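Hi support team,

I submitted a single chain yesterday and got back a structure, but I'm not sure I'm reading the token output correctly. Could someone confirm the output below corresponds to the sequence I sent? I've pasted both exactly as they appear in my results page.

Thanks,
R.
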Amino acid sequence: MNINEGIPAKIKVQTKVTQNDETEEFVFDLPGQVVKMGDTLYIRYKEVQPDGQETPVTVKVTPDSQVQLIRSGESRMRLRFAYREKLETSYKTPYGIFMITTYAKNLHVSLKDRPFSGIITIDYALLMKEEKVGDYHLVLEFTT
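Hi R., thanks for writing in. Yes, this is the structure output for that exact sequence:
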């Protein structure tokens, strides 16, 4: 199988969201695909929402260990992460476009060759107009 053309992967996504002193946890085990283009790695999967709708998600990992989480669909979001950097991005919803900022307190990408697999861990704060919306802990594991 050629990773440049995409190979099937098992994906596990764990998210812990803390907002207003309340914490929610989400865990998804999903089929997906891993594609390598040049030195950039793309992990693609579809997140199933409580209403049954599927939201396409792409996680982009660049050689400088920056990570982007791109959600498509009715609401389009592109979260960008770099270790201990504030990065501004847009969140397009049916109600308009909002500017949001991410701040990754922890960002770790670990990849293995045989089988090709990896773990991406991101602890980040989400801010809107310098006001903290919440704290997030994201762990994405994939195995081909």
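A quick pointer for reading it: DSSP finds no helices and ten strands in the chain. Let us know if anything else looks off.

Best,
Support desk
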